[in-house]
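#lab-general

N.A. 3:47 PM
ok so I finally got the sequence cleaned up, no stray characters, all 381 residues accounted for. can someone with queue access submit it? mine expired

B.Y. 3:52 PM
send it over

N.A. 3:53 PM
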Amino acid sequence: MIESQLHKQTPQVSHKRVIDIDCERNHEMNSDKNIDRNVEKNGFPHSEHWYGKPYFSLDAYCKNTLGEKVYKIALDAGMTCPNRDGSIDTRGCIFCSAGGSGEFAVAPSDRKTDGKPDKNSIRASVQEQIITGTRLFEGRQTTHGKLSRKHTGHRFIAYFQSYTNTYAPVAYLKVLYDAALSEPCISGISIATRPDCVSLEICDMLDQLRQKYPDKFIWIELGLQTIHESTAVYIRRGYPLSRFDRCMQLLHEHHIPAIIHVILGLPGETADMIMETIQYLNHCNIQGIKLQLLHVLKGTDLCTDYELGKFHVLSMDTYLDLVMECLSILSPDMVIHRLTGDGSKSLLVAPLWSSNKRLVLNTLHKEMKQRNITQGCAYRP
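B.Y. 4:20 PM
back already:
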């Protein structure tokens, strides 16, 4: 392991004043175009389409395009990963839990991926998971043990989350995705995978499904995490940036929207390195982005390095500064699919403050309003 990659300093943000100045300048430049007409109403531009938030959230996107709030149902398709089965490595990415980042996915009843899928069993498993997932949104236990109904819309996104969800024979994948898309309550599917597991054959199959379900969407989610090769080696990502670029070209050719995952707080990465990743993605024509705080989870090699004192996790203040800087330079048209992340409380070692997601988001919104920062306020095409 290269020690220089594991700086003990937390990434420092030294551009607060720059962000504020740039955002104020952009607001002034855009005032003649009436872009900030809604600022006086609640403090944020674009509020009519962003529903009062200082960024273009997935919630706002769904309300704008589907007319209602839409929730994700995390599914387990019974996959593995080339970074675990020996094709690339057996250890997985350094931060990835044994559950393949799918701790919140509904457990499947069938795990056949042998190339000869039983269509009925696959469909039954997907349908069962969707039914179970929708029921999870029908009620929530309150702190007093009482069941309170959670008011949701009538449509959901089927999110194939655990492990690498294109790492199976195309025939199996087609039946799997078709089973989800055929459900009336499902508005579309989002498929979490790796750039080195997206082929021409898979894209052609997704084209066929899109033609079969023209009123539903199909998204691909890619775990890039960083554009910096030294960090990619440390986290054992298992592919070079050039592979990501080729995958993006393939997705563009098939008009398949891409959502990219980026981790903030990776050991050895400075604030400038993080912003280089964000600026790179600004020019990749992606549909959305997930900004994920680095979580240290039990049982991972990252946890071992953390317990040995080889790096420090981010404080909430530093993380929020990084998020605000990222949002300020991102295109205002890019959909923000995540800003914090949900680490399983039973596995989370650090940072423990991240378990209070509501506090994190409320503080972020308050700080952005006070500093006059909005998504894209310092964006340079």
